[in-house]
Every structure is written in C-alpha cells, then in structure tokens.
C-alpha cells in the first residue's frame, strides 16, 4: 500500500473539505487542543449559506470563528460535552447548549447514537510511515466518533505532539476521507485557572497530608488542584502514579521533581495514564513522544473498574458549592451554567472503591459576588436550579481552608455538623440556625 499516494488523493483545501457539510448535518469539531482551526475558518465562511447545522465539541480554548458570524443562532447550534468560559458566553446569544452526560459514557454514546456524525473533523499529527495519524493529546472519545461518522476529515498540524498510548490514540488513513494540511498554528494553551491563592495552599496542605507514598493521583483543573500539585512536587512523597481524566501542568511539575515512577500501580505500571491533556507549551512538550505517558480513551481512564483497580487512588476535584445534606454542585450557579458533569462522579466512586483510596472535593469556604458581598459556599440547601453533580451518598472527604472532614456514612446531623465545622466562622451560627429548621441539627450539638 502506497500511503503517500493515498494521502495525495485525499488531500484537499479547507474550503473544499467543508463543502461536505450540509444544512441539518451533525458535525464533530474535535476536543480541547485538537479542535479544528483552518476548517473552522472555512466553515465560518460557508455557514451563512446553511441552516440547522448541529456542531459538537467541548473545552474550547479559543473562540471559534463560527461563533463570530452574523446571527449564528440562525445557522447552527453548538452542543458542548463540557463547557468553559467561551461557550458560557455563547449561551446568552442563543446558539450554545450543554449536553449532560458522564464523560466516561461518550465513546459508547457515539457507538450507539441515533444521531451519528455526518462529518467528524479534528486536528491530528502528521501521518507516519505506517499510514497513521496520531490523535495528539485528545484520544478521549475520538476513535468512537470517527468510527461512527459518515465522513472523516483530518486537519494536519505539524505542531501536534505525538502522544503515545495503549490503544485508540491513532487513526489510519484508510479510515479518513479527506485530509487538510493546516496552517500549523501552535496548540492553544489552557492555564490552571490563575495563580494559587493562600486559601488554595491552605486547602492543598490538608489534602497532601492525607496522601501516602505510592498513591495514584487524579487532579482536576483549577487553582486548588494545581496548588495540590505544587505542594506534592515540593513534598517528600515518592513512587507516585498518575491515572487521570485530564492531564494538567501540575503533573509535569510533579514528574520533573522526581515524585512520579508509577511502579506501585496495579495496572499500567510505570505509565501516566490520561484521557486528554490541556495546558501550556510545557505540558505539550513533555507529552511529545514520552513513553512514560499513556493517552487512552475516556471509557478506560474514567471507568470505575479501572480507577478502583489502583490501590491508594487519590481523586482531587473542585466544586462550586455544597449544601448541609452533602450534595455537591460542580456545574452551575443556580440556573447559570458553568461547567459540566465531566468525570467527577466516576472518580469519586472509583476512588472510594480503591483499596486505601480517597476522593476529595475541595473549595474555598466563601466567594465574593460582583457587588463585593461575601457569601458562603456551604449552603443550607443548594440554590434553585443548581445541579447535583455528586449525591450526598457518594461524598468522601470535603476540604476548605478551615479543615478537612470525612463525610462518608455520617447521619444527616453528623454531616451538617461536620460541614459547618469547616465553614467560614462568620457563617457558622447562621448555618446552625438553618440546619435546625431543616431538622438536621441535634440539641446535643449545641453543648
């Protein structure tokens, strides 16, 4: 098979490639760092001729050109598997919508979908001598999407890191319909949510004190998980492993500090396993052709069975708020959409099933509203419309700058007492009064 000849026959311009997209089509746009760039520009020019195009993607790291066309809602809907700030702004403009799903279920969703992609397009690394395009740092659900799609278009980016894996991290030219050679832009970068604050460091210290040598780590995105990563990099911990949904910059720092060997992992020994990666150039350079790292589909990384097979699994995630019943909201502020379900619940459940495992939900005890009012993140009940990401039956450890509490198995009054004990002191009396009204406060608590 002459792969170069096949490549030449399938090579087209971005403008020609997007002619495959018709009104009413379902189109996949890549994921995070592999979201298309040149194809996006070409489609932005074509979209004014089309209507009712449904586009799927998520974790946008730059505003797509299609978002900038006149009256986008008249031409397409953006359906996001996991929203960030760019997509949130588009909700108010009437063309951006969240698709609620546990992230681990995405590959099966594509295999079983009643609306498979008419066109799937994504950025890839250049074809190798065997006729394969590496999927870069976003294996995630990519191959399930590709296999279910009617047409597959790849946008080749010379700057895409080669991310080694176990399976489903490359696509064969045989499974590709059209090839576009992109403008080789640098991969879009995603920061860690700002510099860690004193509160982040206080929370991180409580968590790091709970981590044993040889533990396997999962970190979420944001200041607090990154602060945990920084403290781990500076700690005396050793022989750590990685098995995570999202690979973030903090893991690079921990690895370069010599803390990660992965040699105590029960599965994938010696490998840092992840479903997708997004961060700075430091991260992409580290992942490139690195045999210590293993890119894998999210149905493997986020499978409760994979997580629970790893001893001493430590899952560390942020949330928006929590109520006195122990219900965790990590997705919205009331009805205002913020993020998505992602894999948080998978890791909360899987970590607890792990031998010696622990899951941590962490947050600052308060936040400031736009008018400067300080509000407690620990609430009597979640605000109307808030999404329950983790139910009250599933929470293990909860952490604020005021302490760490194990909520597993506590009765309603014990749970309320524990949560109030790590609330900001200015709000504790008010929370006690509310707990009393909710009949989850015992008189003995007041002694």
From TrEMBL:
Q: Keywords for this entry?
A: Fatty acid metabolism, Lipid metabolism, Transferase
Claim: tRNA-binding is one of the keywords in the record: no
The EC number(s) attached to this protein equal 2.8.3.-
Write down the top EC class of this protein: transferase
Q: Where does the sequence pass through the membrane?
A: none
Question: Active-site residues?
Answer: 245
* Substrates-to-products reaction catalysed: butanoate + acetyl-CoA = butanoyl-CoA + acetate
Q: Where is the Acetyl-CoA hydrolase/transferase C-terminal domain?
A: 279-435
- Return the protein name: Butyryl-CoA:acetate CoA-transferase
């Amino acid at each position: 098979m002459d792969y170069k000849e096949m490549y030449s026959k399938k090579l087209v311009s971005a403008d020609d490639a997007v002619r495959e997209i018709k009104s009413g089509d379902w189109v996949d746009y890549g994921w995070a760092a592999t979201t298309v760039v040149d194809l996006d520009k070409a489609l932005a020019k074509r979209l004014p001729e089309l209507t009712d195009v449904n586009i799927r993607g998520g974790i946008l790291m730059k505003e797509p050109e299609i978002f900038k066309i006149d009256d986008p809602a008249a031409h397409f809907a953006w359906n996001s598997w996991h929203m960030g700030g760019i997509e949130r702004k588009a909700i108010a403009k009437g063309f951006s919508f969240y698709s609620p799903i546990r992230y681990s279920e995405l590959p099966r969703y594509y295999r079983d979908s009643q609306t498979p992609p008419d066109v799937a397009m994504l950025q890839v690394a250049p074809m190798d001598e065997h006729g394969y395009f590496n999927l870069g740092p976003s294996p995630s659900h990519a191959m399930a999407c590709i296999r279910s799609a009617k047409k597959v278009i790849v946008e080749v980016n010379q700057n895409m890191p080669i991310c080694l894996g176990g399976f489903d991290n490359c696509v064969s030219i045989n499974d590709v319909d059209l090839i576009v050679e992109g403008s080789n832009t640098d991969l879009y970068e995603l920061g860690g949510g700002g510099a860690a604050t004193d509160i982040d460091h206080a929370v991180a210290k409580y968590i790091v004190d709970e981590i044993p040598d040889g533990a396997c780590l999962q970190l979420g995105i944001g200041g607090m998980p990154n602060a945990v990563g920084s403290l781990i990099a500076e700690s005396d911990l050793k022989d750590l492993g990685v098995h995570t949904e999202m690979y973030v910059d903090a893991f690079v720092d921990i690895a370069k500090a010599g803390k990660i060997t992965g040699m105590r992992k029960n599965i994938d020994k010696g490998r840092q396993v992840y479903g997708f990666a997004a961060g700075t150039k430091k991260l992409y350079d580290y992942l490139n052709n690195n045999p210590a790292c293993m890119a894998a589909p999210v149905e493997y990384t986020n499978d409760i069975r994979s997580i629970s097979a790893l001893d001493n699994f430590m899952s560390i995630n942020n949330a928006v708020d929590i109520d006195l019943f122990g219900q965790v909201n990590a997705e919205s502020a009331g009805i205002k959409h913020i993020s998505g379900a992602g894999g948080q619940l998978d890791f909360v459940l899987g970590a607890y099933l792990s031998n010696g495992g622990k899951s941590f939900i962490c947050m600052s005890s308060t936040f400031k509203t736009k008018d400067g009012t300080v509000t407690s993140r620990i609430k009597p009940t979640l605000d109307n419309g808030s999404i329950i990401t983790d139910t009250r039956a599933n929470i293990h450890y909860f952490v604020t700058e005021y302490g760490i509490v194990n909520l597993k198995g506590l009765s309603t009054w014990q749970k309320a007492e524990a949560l109030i004990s790590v609330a900001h002191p200015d709000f504790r009396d008010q929370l006690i009064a509310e707990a009393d009204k909710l009949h989850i406060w015992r008189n003995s608590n007041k002694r």
